[in-house]
Amino acid sequence: MLSLATDLDALTRFGRALADPIRCRILLALREAPAYPADLADALGISRTRLSNHLACLRDCGLVVAVPDGRRVRYELADPRLGHALDDLRSAVVAVETDRTCAEAEEKGCC
């Protein structure tokens, strides 16, 4: 059984990754299929440098892995369960309140 500290660390890492919209978009894209950085940058409409910084963060959080593929590197989710977790989290948030935004919550001081 995992300790509370381990559970908190894992959730904190996941939360840190989800705190940025670009990292969320990267995770959602990798949920669909592994991808090469150049393709991800083009698909997301961001620079390769910016993408590289976000991929480094996601690697440091343990959520994505770089897989050598010949002379290239392909990125994918570190574990297929992360894709399921993203789906479940997205469904749960939508099910709770679809008429709320973080801006509204921020105005109330809870974010």
UniProtKB/TrEMBL annotation:
CDD domains membership: HTH_ARSR
Record-annotated HTH arsR-type domain positions: 4-100
Coiled coil: none
UniProt cross-references to InterPro entries, sorted A to Z: ArsR-like_HTH, HTH_ArsR_DNA-bd_dom, HTH_Metal-responsive_Reg, WH-like_DNA-bd_sf, WH_DNA-bd_sf
SUPFAM superfamilies assigned to the protein according to its UniProt record, in alphabetical order: Winged helix' DNA-binding domain
Alphabetized PROSITE patterns for the sequence: HTH_ARSR_2
Protein name: Metalloregulator ArsR/SmtB family transcription factor
